[in-house]
TrEMBL record:
It is found in: Cytoplasm. The keyword Transferase applies. Its EC number is 2.6.1.16. GO terms for molecular function: glutamine-fructose-6-phosphate transaminase (isomerizing) activity. It catalyses: D-fructose 6-phosphate + L-glutamine = D-glucosamine 6-phosphate + L-glutamate. The active site is at K362. Homodimer. This is Glutamine--fructose-6-phosphate aminotransferase [isomerizing]. It comes from Roseomonas haemaphysalidis. Its main location: cytoplasm. Keywords: Aminotransferase, Cytoplasm, Glutamine amidotransferase, Repeat, Transferase. The chain holds residues 241 to 607 of 607 of the full protein. Catalyzes the first step in hexosamine metabolism, converting fructose-6P into glucosamine-6P using glutamine as a nitrogen source. The keyword Aminoacyl-tRNA synthetase does not apply. Residues 40-182, 215-357 form the SIS domain.
Length: 367
């Protein structure tokens, strides 16, 4: 069936506004509301004993996998390796007996990801795919598939499929943690409750994006933009930079906040906006001090945070956008949305083609 834009100007705008529904649908699929526990489908490996997971994907799906890696290691204590799919084979990975591989893809057809999947499967790893298209090559060629419930995504730059991938990865991390005996029921219930609140927060964020639009007016004038984050927000900083490049053709770099002092700080002056993803939580103090270093060198800090983090950042940041306060576990899902919105608004201000950026394809079927 063909998909329309409804009352929206672009598919991307429509798909951004589908976040609350898609996140709700995906979370309902993998969380049992009665027991407040992750409810995973049958898996092709036993998470209780699997010695290691190898994760791989391309583009935004790779960045979702990176967040998943933080979650799976922190919550389930399973060792995880991850590589960009087009590089995985060249590393000649050393794979453990009985190991498993996890591939993430919206289309399920990306050639590099499919090639990596086939390689790892041929090397004896059990393969699980997270895909949005259940009839796709990856779904068919895997030992098991977990579906994101994002519906068709037409805009070339991924939006709702990306956050749906995060939602599935979060549920997998919880289910793996329980299976491994390192996550108790009370903690799992607390974390699933935090996840189930995300769709409502997403709706609130999308209802009023005035502040993100104001931020976009600053960013559209820049030649270079730096995105910073720490921990599970680091891959979201990379995603922010990727989205801005893809949609607006403005040069952007994502960096781990703590690594800035080893290079990018040399670029900082008043012409480079520094977009910081800095929610309250255990990593707040260190990230804030990295930002303060940038501000001291004339950097213009524009931060996404929450009510708890805002006062400290306001002391040196030029702009502070306050997002709902959530458990640090779910902060990357929530921060992904304004970062996508920012790229969207900058692209609209520049007049670029948001649904079909130059030189890019929705699914890349060549290696
Ligand atoms: C292309 C798209 C990206 C996407 C990537 C991976 O580059 O433009 O938005 O993240 O492919 O696609 P997949 O379908 O495997 O998630």
């Amino acid at each position: 069936a063909s998909v329309g834009k409804g009352n929206y100007r672009h598919f991307m705008e429509k798909e951004l506004h589908e976040h609350p529904i898609v996140l709700g649908d995906t979370l309902r699929q993998y969380i049992d509301p009665a027991s407040r526990a992750a409810a995973l489908p049958a898996l092709p490996f036993d998470p209780a004993t699997v010695p290691r997971l190898t994760m791989s994907a391309c583009g935004s799906a790779y960045l979702a996998a990176q967040v998943g890696r933080y979650w799976i290691e922190q919550i389930a204590r399973i060792p995880v390796d991850s590589d960009i799919a087009s590089e995985l084979r060249y590393r000649e990975p050393v794979l453990p007996e009985g190991g498993a591989a996890l591939f993430v893809s919206q289309s399920g057809e990306t050639a590099d990801t499919l090639a990596a999947l086939r390689l790892l499967r041929s090397l004896g790893q059990k393969v699980l795919s997270i895909v949005n298209v259940d009839e796709s090559s990856m779904a068919r060629e895997s030992d098991g598939a977990v579906l994101t419930v994002a519906g068709p995504e037409i805009g070339v730059a991924s939006t709702k499929a990306f956050t749906a991938q995060l939602a599935v990865l979060a549920c997998l991390a919880l289910g793996f943690g329980r299976a491994r005996g390192v996550l108790d029921g009370a903690e799992e219930a607390r974390l699933t409750a935090a996840l189930l609140e995300v769709p409502g927060h997403a709706a609130a964020l999308l209802e009023d994006s005035t502040e993100v639009l104001e931020l976009a007016r600053e960013v559209v004038q820049a030649r270079d933009v730096l995105f910073l984050g720490r921990g599970s927000l680091y891959p979201i900083a990379l995603e922010g930079a990727l989205k801005l490049k893809e949609l607006s053709y403005i040069h952007a770099e994502g960096y781990a906040a703590g690594e800035m002092k080893h290079g990018p700080i040399a670029l900082i002056d008043a012409s480079v906006p520094v977009i910081a993803l800095c929610p309250s939580g255990p990593l707040f103090e260190k990230t804030a001090s990295n930002l303060q270093e940038a501000a001291a060198r004339g950097g213009r800090i524009m931060a996404f945070t929450d009510a708890e983090g805002a006062p400290a950042l306001r002391r040196f940041a030029e702009r502070v956008v306050v997002l709902p306060t959530v458990d640090p576990f779910v902060a990357p899902i929530l921060h992904a949305i304004p970062v996508q919105l920012l790229a969207y608004h900058v692209a609209i201000l520049k007049g670029t083609d948001v649904d079909q950026p130059r030189n890019l394809a929705k699914a890349v079927t060549v290696e």
